[in-house]
């Protein structure tokens, strides 16, 4: 294979990755927007997006993010079930607040996860930004778990991690993905306000039912 063939192959690969990143970004935005609107279609749409980002992050050597998106496939199915049925013996899941003990436990586990995964990636792989990548992965896992359970504070968790992600993806020259996470920042605010309003309405309805 001569230099011209190699250049053409690299150009074709870059074009394919760019299209994949674009498709992942579009479905990602659609998934978060649907989540903000509490639309159950957020889960199948998000499944498409996370599957694409498994490939994208593998190519970018962001292995923690790659593993995170692979895990999202499982949690998306769990969230899909919860949003439809609310768990065993229940109907559709309603917005709630996270308990302090639960949040504290998730933060402690997230810190341990960050240190362990960061150490492994830094010492045994060629991963870039090992500890930053591990931290955003840990925070994202917390956010995704809280979203599946429709806990209002998940939007605050996503807001924090999305700020970090914008910088990381700019550094990795994943410009479409960086732009995607900037849009996510806006959607986080919209989602928080919408879910908070719904939570307040549910509380009022519960009070009236008691009366």
TrEMBL record:
Taxonomically, which superkingdom? Bacteria
> Does this entry carry the keyword Cytoplasm?
no
Q: Into which family does the record put it?
A: Belongs to the nicotinamide ribonucleoside (NR) uptake permease (TC 4.B.1) family.
Q: What is the lineage of its organism?
A: Bacteria, Pseudomonadati, Bacteroidota, Cytophagia, Cytophagales
NCBIfam families the record matches:
NMN_trans_PnuC (TIGR01528)
Which coarse location class applies to the principal site listed for this UniProt protein?
membrane
Species name for this entry? Pontibacter ruber
The name on file for this protein is Nicotinamide riboside transporter PnuC
Give the record's keywords alphabetically: Cell membrane, Membrane, Transmembrane, Transmembrane helix, Transport
The job of this chain, per UniProt, is described as: Required for nicotinamide riboside transport across the inner membrane.
Name where it's found: Cell membrane
């Amino acid at each position: 294979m001569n230099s011209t063939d190699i250049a053409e192959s690299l150009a074709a690969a870059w074009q394919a990755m760019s299209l994949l990143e674009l498709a992942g970004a579009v479905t990602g935005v659609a998934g978060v927007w649907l989540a903000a609107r509490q639309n159950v279609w957020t889960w199948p749409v998000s499944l498409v997006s996370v599957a694409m980002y498994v490939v994208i992050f593998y190519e970018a050597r962001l292995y923690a993010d790659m593993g995170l998106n692979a895990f999202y496939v499982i949690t998306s199915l769990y969230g899909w079930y919860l949003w439809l049925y609310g768990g065993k013996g229940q109907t559709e899941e309603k917005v709630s607040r996270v308990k302090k003990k639960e949040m504290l436990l998730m933060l402690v586990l997230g810190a341990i996860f960050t240190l362990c995964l960061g150490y492994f990636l830094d010492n045994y792989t060629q991963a870039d930004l090992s500890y930053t990548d591990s931290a955003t992965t840990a925070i994202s896992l917390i956010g995704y778990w809280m979203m599946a359970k429709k806990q209002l504070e998940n939007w605050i968790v996503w807001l924090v991690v999305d700020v970090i992600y914008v910088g990381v993806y700019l550094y990795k020259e994943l410009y479409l993905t960086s732009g995607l996470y900037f849009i996510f920042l806006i959607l986080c605010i919209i989602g928080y306000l919408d879910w908070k309003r719904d939570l307040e309405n549910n509380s009022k309805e519960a009070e009236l039912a008691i009366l």
